[in-house]
Amino acid sequence: MFHSYLKLGPRDGVMLISVIIMLVLTLIFKWSVWEFSLSIIAIIVAFLAGRMKPNEKKVLAFLKK
Length: 65
Hints:
Mean pLDDT: 78
Number of domains: 1
Largest sheet: none
Keywords: Membrane, Transmembrane, Transmembrane helix
Structural class: mainly alpha
Distance between the termini: 56 Å
Oligomer: single chain
Transmembrane segments: 12-30
Number of helices: 3
Strand content: under 5%
Low-confidence stretches: none
Shape: flat
Order of helices and strands: HHH
Radius of gyration: 18 Å
């Protein structure tokens, strides 16, 4: 029986694919290490922001005013 210690989901797969695409673009267009690092940081921030859930209480309080 195969049991994975890392619980990877579809979002993690998409993130891995986007990192691989950035690596390929870095090799093709000869980006510097800084450009590659900043693009990876931007990808991580975008995925973290996508996982955030809105706070329902604040939205409803705003609508009640």
